[in-house]
Amino acid sequence: MTDPLANSYYAATAHKWRSAFRMGEDLSFDVAVIGGGFTGLSAALACAERGFSVILIEREHIGFGASGRNGGQLIPGLRWTASELETEFGRERADTLFDLCWRDNRVKARIARHGIDCNLKAGHLEAAWTPKDFDAMRREAEYLAARFDYQSEVVGKGDMTAHVATPLYHGGIHDPQGGHFHPLNYAIGLAQAAEAAGVSILEGQRAHKITENPRGPGVITDRAHIGARYVIDATDSWIGHVEPDLGRYTVPIMNYNIATEPLKNADALLPSDTAVADSRFVLNYFRLSADKRLIFGGGERYSQTPPRDIAAFVRPFMMQVFPQIADAKIDYGWGGAVAVTMNRLPHIGRRGNVFFAHGFSGHGALVTTLAGELIAEAMAGTAERFDIFANLPSRPFPGGPWLRRPLATLGLLWYALRDRLG
Ligand SMILES: Cc1cc2nc3c(=O)[nH]c(=O)nc-3n(C[C@H](O)[C@H](O)[C@H](O)COP(=O)(O)OP(=O)(O)OC[C@H]3O[C@@H](n4cnc5c(N)ncnc54)[C@H](O)[C@@H]3O)c2cc1C
């Protein structure tokens, strides 16, 4: 498939890697994973570590989807705050969700364990777009400190320039446990670790259908029927193509990134080298690459057609934050689909021998690695932690195949309008 969105900084700076697997006669495995993003790779690796024989099927190449083109921002937690989780689900479930999603950084653990070279850096700043946003952030930081002994820095408006050279924000929370990385090189590192653990990685082949066979479900791909006792569907934005019913739970929202040329004044823009995301509904998020480019994400489109000129589409958002680099050359512009659920919590579960995890709603760089590991844990017989996620509420979008996206779009446009009205 030619990808009009592939002009990414990440693709240009990716480590060279090709899967060693060549299709032979025996295509029977314990586990078939569909999708070579963070979720599928993490699940495949964790399953192999538990002794399962595993094949991973990716229709393009490792990291082709959101995992290889995201903002690279590692933001602890979920799209809901910890206090919202506690209010909704009670103390005990909130404790487990907190331990899993905030405290236990599985990405850092994988990077350390496998020596993955992906420019990992510490520090994430949530920047307040309005004074009201800042008040809410400060209250949440105080709650996290008091309830979980989770320490972050409350940054007043006057101190924001220690992190970001713009007067635009009304304060923020700097979380040293967050960070940023080169997402495609992380995906490639996971693939190398998975292959070393025995996973067969089949790139360039699309899974069309999950089927029943005498041994249990299997997967029909372009060229083969692959037998497997368990299937893991990790196709995120494309999940409806493989499992139409699961497709009802997310809508794909297009989001775009640019990378400037390497900047002489890069360190002055982001003095603490933190990643930044602001509190608008259609947020701006940015960080520096290892070679001192500004990687900036901003603007969403509710149509699936990309803008003709991505750099021209994103540049005004960048200029609003950093007018001092208005003339910077933009070397790369790319985009991808963010799979969003109705309530912005991921949809994770199991139907018979088919496991799935999708809909991380723009907050998947950290939690997808965890999700993959929890699937492996459940498959091996300990489902307690997996069930905490599987029991999160989930609802399909209303409207059926034709109306689902337009209806969801109307809702999203309403929130985007509220951003503009301030
Ligand atoms: C532009 C953008 C910016 C983002 N920024 C951030 C960020 O800064 N921080 C953050 O936390 N999150 C961010 N996200 C979200 C995050 O990237 C995702 O939540 C996460 O990568 C999802 O990983 P995944 O493995 O579930 O899905 P994907 O990475 O999308 O992987 C799915 C894979 O399945 C493959 N596939 C699909 N159908 C088939 C099939 N039929 N057969 C075989 N293979 C198939 C695809 O080719 C793809 O490689 C961003 C997303 C986008 C698009």
Distance between the termini: 41 Å
Largest sheet: 9 strands, mixed
Q: Give the CA-based shape.
A: globular
Average pLDDT reading: 93
Question: Radius of gyration, Cα only, in angstroms?
Answer: 21 Å
Residue fraction in strands: 25-35%
- The unreliable regions are none
- Structural class comes to alpha/beta
| Total number of helices | 13
* H-E string: HEHEEHHHEHEEHEEEEHEHEEEHEEEHHH
Helical amount among residues, as a percent range?
25-40%
User: What is the number of strand segments?
Assistant: 17
What ligands are attached or bound here? Answer: flavin-adenine dinucleotide
What does this molecule look like?
GO terms for molecular function: oxidoreductase activity. The protein has 422 residues and is of the alpha/beta class. It is built from 13 helices and 17 strands. The strands form two sheets. Strands 3, 4, 5, 6, 11, 12, 13, 14 and 15 form a nine-stranded mixed beta sheet that branches. Strands 1, 2, 7, 8, 9, 10, 16 and 17 form an eight-stranded mixed beta sheet that branches. β12 (275-278) and β13 form a beta hairpin. α2 packs parallel to α7, α2 (38-49) runs parallel beside α11 and α3 packs antiparallel against α4. The longest helix has 22 residues, at 400-421. The two termini are 41 Å apart. The mean pLDDT is 93. The structure holds flavin-adenine dinucleotide (FAD). Flavin-adenine dinucleotide (FAD) binds at residues 34-40, 57-60, 64-67, 69-73, 75, 206-207, 234-238, 241-242, 255, 257, 285, 297, 335-338, 358, 360, 362-366, 368.
